Amino acid sequence: MTEQYTNKIATVILAAGASSRFNGCKMMAKVLGEKSLLAHSVETLKQVTQAANIAPAAVVLGAHINDDIMTMTQGAVRIINRQWQTGLSSSVKLAVNYAIEAKSDALLLVLADQVAITANEYLRLINAFLQNKQTCCSFYQQDVGVPAIFLAQDFNALMAIEGDKGAKRVLKQHAKNQHLTILSIDNAACDIDTPADLTRWLSQCNKPDVSECPN
Length: 215
Known about the structure:
Layout: E1 9-15, E2 30-32, E3 35-36, H1 37-52, E4 58-61, H2 67-72, E5 77-80, H3 88-101, E6 106-111, H4 119-132, E7 136-140, E8 143-151, H5 155-159, H6 168-176, E9 181-184, H7 195-205
Parallel strand pairs: 1-4, 1-6, 4-5, 7-9
Antiparallel strand pairs: 2-3, 6-8, 7-8
InterPro entries: MobA-like_NTP_Trfase, Nucleotide-diphossugar_trans
Keywords: Magnesium
Protein name: Xanthine dehydrogenase
C-alpha cells in the first residue's frame, strides 16, 4: 500500500559537488562525534519529513560516491548527477525533475553542508510555506537563500539556471515582485566549504547550547 502524505512536498538534499575548496570529500567530514556531514544532513531531514508528514528526502550525489556514502544514504532515494562537473545548476535540475516525476506541488531544496540548521528550523520553513501558499525561503547574511521551498510554478525558472548557479536568482525575482515569504534563519549562514569552516564549526558551533554559528 502506498504511503499517504499530508502535503505533496518533495525534499531534495544537494550533495553532488566536488568539494574543491575542502581538498577532499567534505561529505565524509566528521561534524558531530563520529557522524559525517552527509549523515547528519540525511538524519536531520528524516526527522523533518516524518514530523511534517511529507515524503522522505532524496539525495543528489555526484563527485564522491563510495561504499560509505552509499551506507549513509541507505533508505533515501539516491539521484546520481553524472553531470556534476557542470555546476550546481545540474543538481537543481535533477531535483526539479524528481519533484515533477513525483507529482509534487512544491520542492524543498536543501544544501547538505548547511550543518547548523536544526530540524525545528526546517519545520518553521515548511509551516510558513503552508500558511502563505507561496515560494518560501531563508534569509541570512542580509540576503535570501536556501533552504527554500519552491512552488511547481517555479520549476521552469529553476530548469533555466545554467552553470555553477543555484536557485538564488529565482528567489530574488520573487522578492522583487513581492511574491516571496522570507524567514530569518541565521544558522543557514554556517556551511562547510573549507577545512577552516570545519575547524570553526568543531570549536565553536558543535556545542549543545549554541543556537547560532559564527560566520
